[in-house]
C-alpha cells in the first residue's frame, strides 16, 4: 500500500511540475533562440512556428494591426517584398487583437488584397511573449534565431537591405 501511495505521489508531483504550459517569453535581441509556439490563422487552424522558422529559409515576422496607420504604410511594401521573394524568404504577418477584432482584421486584409501568410493573435500571447509594445515590429529570423529587430516602418528597400538582397 505504501508503494502505491509513493507511486501516486510521484505521479502527482510530475503532473504539477511538468503539466503546466509555460507562457511564451522571448528576449527580443539578436542571437536569441525562439522557443516553439503556435500561430493561429484567420480560420482558427494552428501551425507550429518551427515548421516555418526551420525550413531552411530566412523569415520576416511582422507584428501589425489593422487600425495602425504605420502598418497601413508598411504592409503594401511587405506585400511587394513577399511577391518578389516568397520562394526564398518566409513572410509571416501576425495581427494583434488589441483594440480590434478578427472580423475587422479579415476585412482589412481582404480589402487590401494581401496574399502573404496572415495569423491572428486572439489572446495577445504572441504580442506579450515577444514583448511587442509598438506596431509594426519586424523580426528577421533564421533557424528560429532572431537575427535583427526593427521597430519602425520598413519600406521595400529596407526589407531588401535587411535580407542582403541589393
Automatic annotation (TrEMBL):
<dbReference type="Pfam" id="PF00578">
    <property type="entry name" value="AhpC-TSA"/>
</dbReference>
<dbReference type="GO" id="GO:0016491">
    <property type="term" value="F:oxidoreductase activity"/>
</dbReference>
<protein>
    <submittedName>
        <fullName>Alkyl hydroperoxide reductase</fullName>
    </submittedName>
</protein>
<dbReference type="InterPro" id="IPR000866">
    <property type="entry name" value="AhpC/TSA"/>
</dbReference>
<dbReference type="GO" id="GO:0016209">
    <property type="term" value="F:antioxidant activity"/>
</dbReference>
<dbReference type="InterPro" id="IPR036249">
    <property type="entry name" value="Thioredoxin-like_sf"/>
</dbReference>
<dbReference type="InterPro" id="IPR013766">
    <property type="entry name" value="Thioredoxin_domain"/>
</dbReference>
<dbReference type="InterPro" id="IPR050553">
    <property type="entry name" value="Thioredoxin_ResA/DsbE_sf"/>
</dbReference>
